[in-house]
# Entry
Amino acid sequence: MTAIEKEDLDYQYSPSRWSHRFDAEAVVQDHVRVVQTETDKARAQLQCELDVSYGDREGDKLDIYKPDNCRSDAPIFVYIHGGYWQFLSKDQSGFTAIPLTAAGVMVVAVGYDIAPKAVCTYVATPLGVTWAPWSCLVTGQKSGMVGCRLSKVPFLCLGCTT
# Structure
């Protein structure tokens, strides 16, 4: 196996550089604009609980988006935002909530402290989802999952990458 050059590795870990239509900065700006707009819509239109504490750190908060007539056994979609441990937050992570809650799925956007407030070893620590043992999916840019099956919900391919 040969060593990967730093430039090649940086390219592989930076999907914003892959666009054939926009420069990397424009890709990031457009992504942020779209996810923020859709999150704002979800917060305005849906039943949600914002800033629910789950830990001891300032950033350890969840935003929970519930479907109408939410069942106690509803599937739960947990989204952990990306941003290379220094950018984005749960406040831009409710963009999946409108279509998923329409399908009866509860959406949980996970917040956490980012750099420089937190070091990478803390941020990269996997989250235990022991409080939601049924039909729970953890996905997002940090989870490494691209798609999944939720009970009675068709295959979701969300384009999430690590």
About this structure: The two ends are 22 Å apart (CA to CA).
